[in-house]
Amino acid sequence: MVYDLIIIGGGPAGLSAAIYAVRYGLNTLVLEKGFVIGQISTTGEVENYPGFISINGIDLMEKFSEHAKAAGVVVESRDVLGVRSESDLKIISTDVGDLETFTLIIATGANPKKLGVPGEEEFRGKGVSYCATCDGPFFKGRNVIVVGGGESAIEDALILSDLAASVCVVHRRDELRASKMLQDRAFAKPNIEFSWNTELEEIIGDSIVREVVLRNTESGETWTSPIDGVFIYVGVEPNTEFIDVDKNDYGFIVTNEKMATSEAGIFAAGDCRTSILRQVITAASDGVIAAFEAYEYVSAMKHKAE
Ligand code: NAP
Fold first, then answer.
1. CA-236 nearest atom, ligand 1
2. Can you tell me whether residue 152 is helix, strand or coil?
């Protein structure tokens, strides 16, 4: 059987795309690799997805799944190994054989890189976060650190500085990688301070984060600092290795505003593509645009064949 559309990834982008695609009448299949679907499932409370004042990340993803199921979306658990084009078809090779489709939406997401320090995993969602837009409001009037010196770190330090009492940017070197404009804005903020040549060694707490152990990279001196929140920005890794389309230097898939990639009939949506904001709502929005464009693509192809 040849599918009209295969969507790789069953997170917010993939399932939003699938709900729209099924409603457009496309014969659609969603492929999902993991048991825990989407980064959102590893997030704590979500307070910025309209329609839900506050909802747990797992519960929100469950609602997406229920909705998709009710719409008639079929999800299969498969590991995608590669994609190749053969005339009008895209061949998806998976761990349990090949699948054929006219169009493809890649919605495989991205994962924040981990520092790998003790306490990071244990306190994720309990004071450790990778997203100020998502979790910043939980730290109103509290003291937080931001680890990293890139664009994401400084952008989110600025967001946090409007919420938290104090923000300390912990960076392993003595200069930032972020753009000059962001640096200037951060340096001008009275409640942002910088701890240069400093690495985070450990995160300590009980039911929530209480303190961090920091180390000066030049002197080797270590010290403990009481803290309420740790925001980590040491890079982001998109899950895009299996697909050969144009990507930026960091591996994010380049798309236009129609979510089209450099390969005709292949679209990308959500965190795996180049975008300025990676949120559930932007992923969902990308997904429905990609579904509409896939529908247009398949319709034009079938019309031509008639
Ligand atoms: P990034 O530019 O790779 O920066 C990562 C930061 O983390 C660097 O400062 C790096 O330190 C530090 N770091 C890496 N590994 C570390 C470790 N093990 N321990 C301590 N520190 C570590 O990542 P990003 O900020 O996520 O940005 C990724 C890309 O997205 C960039 O192209 C950026 O411009 C783009 N972006 C764009 C926007 C926007 O347009 N609005 C927003 C965010 C990001 P060093 O500096 O010492 O290497």
1. 26
2. helix
Q: Is 286 a known active-site residue? A: no
Q: What percent of the chain has pLDDT over 70?
A: 97
User: What pLDDT sits at residue 32?
Assistant: 93
Q: How is 12-51 classified by DSSP, letter by letter?
A: HHHHHHHHHHHHTT--EEEEE--SS-SGGGG--EE--STT
Q: From the CB of 233, is ligand 1 less than 6 Å away? A: yes
How far does the centroid of ligand 1 lie from the alpha carbon of residue 111, in Å?
Answer: 13
Residue among 59, 98, 131, 272 flagged as catalytic: 131
Tens-digit pLDDT profile for residues 147-159: 999 988 999 999 9
Active-site position among 134, 168, 228, 272: 134
This prediction's pTM: 0.78
CB distance 153 to ligand 1 below 6 Å: yes
- Domain limits at 293? 2-111+236-305
pLDDT in tens, 234-243: 998 999 999 9
Q: Are 126 and 149 in contact (CB under 8 A)?
A: no
Same domain for 223 and 253, yes or no, is: no
Q: Is 206 a catalytic residue?
A: no
Please check whether residues 51 and 66 belong to one and the same domain. yes
Question: Which of 232, 250, 279 corresponds to the end of one domain?
Answer: 232
Give the other-Cβ count within 10 Å of 256's Cβ.
10
103 and 118, same domain (yes or no):
no
